[in-house]
Amino acid sequence: MISDYRSQKLSLTLGHLYPDQLNLYGDRGNILTLQRRCQLRGIELRVVGLGVGDALAPDEYDLLFIGGGQDKEQAPVAQDLHEMKGIGMWAAIEDDMPVLAVCGGFQLLAHYYRPAEGPDMRGLGVFDAWTEHKGSQVPRCIGDIAIRWGDQTLVGFENHGGRTYLGTAQPLGRVIKGHGNNAEDHTEGAIYRNAFGTYLHGSLLPKNPHFADYLLELALQRKYNHAESENVPSFNSVATEHGSTVLELPRTSLPSLLAPLDDTLEWEAHASLLERLGLYTEAASVLRAHIDSFRLV
Amino acid sequence: MRRNSMRKQQPSQPIPPDTDHSQQTNQSDAASLPTVPAEAHQESAEKRQRGSARAGMAVIAGRTAGALSRRLHIGGGTSIIGVVAQRVYPDIVAHLATELEHGSIMVTGTNGKTTTSSFIAAILRDDGLRVWRNREGSNLVGGVASSLVIRAQPNGHLRRSGAAISILEVDEAALPKLVRAIPPRIVVFTNLFRDQLDRYGEVDSVVNKWKIAIAQLPASTTLILNADDPTITQLGENFPGRIIYYGIDDIQLEAAEPAETDTEKRYQVLDTRTCAHCGAEYEYSARFYSHMGHYYCPSCGKRRPTPDIRISRVEMESFDRIRLQIATGEEAAHEIIVPLPGLYNIYNALAAAAVAHAMKIGWDAVTTGIEQSKPVFGRGERIQVEGRTIRLLLAKNPTGFNEVLRTLFSDNSSRHILFILNDNIADGQDISWIWDVDFERAVHHIETLVVSGTRAFDLALRMQYAGVDEQKIMVVPPTPLKALKTLHTTHSRQQKKLHIRRAKKDNVEYNTQENIKLPEYVYGIKNALDGALQKTPVGETLFIVPTYTALLELHRELEQRGFTSRYWEGRDA
């Protein structure tokens, strides 16, 4: 059942940045999801925690994750990210390593975070974007959210006081219901190469198995399809372009290294959140596309 | 539905019968209790003269509004009474509260408010006081106001305020507002964990609210603080009044956790990691759960204060019988039995004993008060249903849920479980926290499992990811997915056409049986309850772990089926 790629056992290493400091919004669910989806396919996924003071050697990892935390804990993390992990992170991202940055992590990968008062917090500047907190009288962006990602949907929960504005960075998706980056321009998240920033938690990946698989696929293709492959179209060349072509993600054009799983429950959870947001058409198309018994319809 | 809502909104609960009257033999004891400061009395006397007329109006207005809302079936609870009364006379709460002979005790914190208040109430009642409390869930300003107004007379005075004391369970965020209205005699802080991030904000913002509240307290107030929670002890700094710290000294308790037997270390959420002074990470010589334990800061030397009242020994005798040795100072320890399950209830009992200690109440009342306590609404409550026992264990946040799971699964017996996860406003709309709960602990100890609530699918997914066999999980969503229905109809219509056409062609009879296989569900909490009961054999126990609104819904269902009384009737309002 497993698409055993040239009969070698596939393995990936996930670097989980600041697991103790940035773990406020159930970020553990994202890690558990990646682990489980690998495990079910016989892929070995090793998770390495990278705390404050640890260096990031880009060639040791295939995938990076960074979550969100309390304001108080974000400042020392921002400093460490610059001093200890900045160069490694840049190298990894320029080398097309998939990176998922949620909430606070997303803000840390943009240029800066400007609080309502006090000095700016410097970010890595991976995404050409910046975040401003407009003071306590401006309401936080809180609630369930659905966005359009390519021709599909992503669902989650957002809770952020900062408003993020995109420069040249492409958004991860368009807001269907919810606030998104800044509650003004309907953008949500940001993309640079294979790095994805987003405000969606809830956790994000369990209810969005297509996005989880997309990240794993990117990591596997990068690791195993890198040098060789004449008959396999180079994933990377397509992937680098997708920043500008958000609506046509190169998902299906590739021979997948991932065996399909039974995701009925995942998609029911996804669809039920869409319905809670009043998005019945989207919910129907999700079920039709993903639940076996409806494929025939 | 209509009948149901009528009953729910019966707001003016009967004034509690004066049952304590007979117990008032211990008059001298009650008289020797420290009362509210004399100056407060004087001030209140003036205020009373000025305000009585207005207060009377406010009381009448509030109770009229309550009666009207009951009549017209609008609104949810009783807080309308307090809200209207406050509109008429903004100082109504302060006005009435000063009439209480023994003042007010406030209890706040993330977990344990209700159980701690009920322990305190039991102790004080055993000591001969007349105890008033705000009702379940009415812990915002309006609810507290209502609790006083419904006991006031149209002349603007409280009924039977002699020997009376109020125990107010206060929402974390409402504390600054309430201490302004009612200067409390004692404030108990139980603990602080992440809870409803969408409503309360981060843990730090709650700390700031509490600091604002504490800055407004008179020096005559006593603070009762949990010594084992670093965030709580930090509240005592710079407070000029009396502080009593309580904590667990029995470090054996840490070892009671069979965590290391598993290859995986137990996942615990830490909500306070760093020192409030220097920002370094705390280290622990003993950690009981989450960030609760014997901590110290390796950088600036800040450490857990020595508790004034402490538990020197804990023995878990059975699922809900814990034997404690409680000691103050150099005194010999006193034995107390806590008749409730869970480590968190040890802290609740200790906090109540600390209140008694602050009020110089004898150990007899503490012992009997705690030992004879019944579980309060949904917190370990036991209900008999058709030969089975139901235990309700409310869990509202990751730490609360983790502790409930520890209580259920620490002795390796297999359990029948019903989890209900709602995401209504009172629960917190963000359910991300379920991914921080250590459900992995439950995996090998689940006999049968039903998951339900508005976010049943999310919870089912969480259980599946924890490693529970998918076949074992019965999912009971709140309502059918609309999309599923539509698709189903379209599909079967198409199938039917196809079949009929085929049947005509092949000249055979159309077979109606052949249809697509769909995930089959029943819906709603009622069906979840039935399903879970069906899976639980007669004579065994079904453990139900609901979030807050799920508990209300479930309790109403159990009441309607006549298995338990309406919840305020069983309560000591």
UniProtKB/TrEMBL annotation, chain A:
UniProt keywords, alphabetically: Cell shape, Cell wall biogenesis/degradation, Glutamine amidotransferase, Hydrolase, Ligase, Peptidoglycan synthesis, Transferase
The function of this protein is: The lipid II isoglutaminyl synthase complex catalyzes the formation of alpha-D-isoglutamine in the cell wall lipid II stem peptide. The GatD subunit catalyzes the hydrolysis of glutamine to glutamate and ammonia. The resulting ammonia molecule is channeled to the active site of MurT.
List the top taxonomic levels of the source.
Answer: Bacteria, Bacillati, Chloroflexota, Ktedonobacteria, Ktedonobacterales
* Ranges for domain CobB/CobQ-like glutamine amidotransferase: 15-208
Annotated substrate binding sites: R140
Q: State the reactions this protein catalyses.
A: beta-D-GlcNAc-(1->4)-Mur2Ac(oyl-L-Ala-gamma-D-Glu-L-Lys-D-Ala-D-Ala)-di-trans,octa-cis-undecaprenyl diphosphate + L-glutamine + ATP + H2O = beta-D-GlcNAc-(1->4)-Mur2Ac(oyl-L-Ala-D-isoglutaminyl-L-Lys-D-Ala-D-Ala)-di-trans,octa-cis-undecaprenyl diphosphate + L-glutamate + ADP + phosphate + H(+); L-glutamine + H2O = L-glutamate + NH4(+)
What Gene3D superfamilies does UniProt report for this protein, alphabetically?
3.40.50.880
Q: Which InterPro entries match?
A: Class_I_gatase-like, CobQ_GATase1, GATase_3, Lipid_II_synth_GatD
What is the scientific name of the source organism? Dictyobacter arantiisoli
* Keyword NADP on entry: no
Q: In which pathway does it act?
A: Cell wall biogenesis; peptidoglycan biosynthesis
The name this protein carries in UniProt is Lipid II isoglutaminyl synthase (glutamine-hydrolyzing) subunit GatD
Active site feature: C103, H201
Query: What Pfam families does the annotation carry?
Result: GATase_3
What is the protein's quaternary organization?
Forms a heterodimer with MurT.
Q: Which family does it belong to?
A: Belongs to the CobB/CobQ family. GatD subfamily.
TrEMBL record, chain B:
- Pfam families, per the entry: Mur_ligase_M, MurT_C
What catalytic activity does the UniProt entry give for this protein? beta-D-GlcNAc-(1->4)-Mur2Ac(oyl-L-Ala-gamma-D-Glu-L-Lys-D-Ala-D-Ala)-di-trans,octa-cis-undecaprenyl diphosphate + ATP = beta-D-GlcNAc-(1->4)-Mur2Ac(oyl-L-Ala-gamma-D-O-P-Glu-L-Lys-D-Ala-D-Ala)-di-trans,octa-cis-undecaprenyl diphosphate + ADP; beta-D-GlcNAc-(1->4)-Mur2Ac(oyl-L-Ala-gamma-D-O-P-Glu-L-Lys-D-Ala-D-Ala)-di-trans,octa-cis-undecaprenyl diphosphate + NH4(+) = beta-D-GlcNAc-(1->4)-Mur2Ac(oyl-L-Ala-D-isoglutaminyl-L-Lys-D-Ala-D-Ala)-di-trans,octa-cis-undecaprenyl diphosphate + phosphate + H(+); beta-D-GlcNAc-(1->4)-Mur2Ac(oyl-L-Ala-gamma-D-Glu-L-Lys-D-Ala-D-Ala)-di-trans,octa-cis-undecaprenyl diphosphate + L-glutamine + ATP + H2O = beta-D-GlcNAc-(1->4)-Mur2Ac(oyl-L-Ala-D-isoglutaminyl-L-Lys-D-Ala-D-Ala)-di-trans,octa-cis-undecaprenyl diphosphate + L-glutamate + ADP + phosphate + H(+)
Q: In which pathway does this enzyme or protein participate?
A: Cell wall biogenesis; peptidoglycan biosynthesis
* Enzyme Commission no: 6.3.5.13
One Gene Ontology molecular-function label? carbon-nitrogen ligase activity on lipid II
Q: How does it assemble?
A: Forms a heterodimer with GatD.
Q: Name the chain's protein.
A: Lipid II isoglutaminyl synthase (glutamine-hydrolyzing) subunit MurT
Query: From what organism does this protein derive?
Result: Dictyobacter arantiisoli
Query: Upper taxonomic classification of the species?
Result: Bacteria, Bacillati, Chloroflexota, Ktedonobacteria, Ktedonobacterales
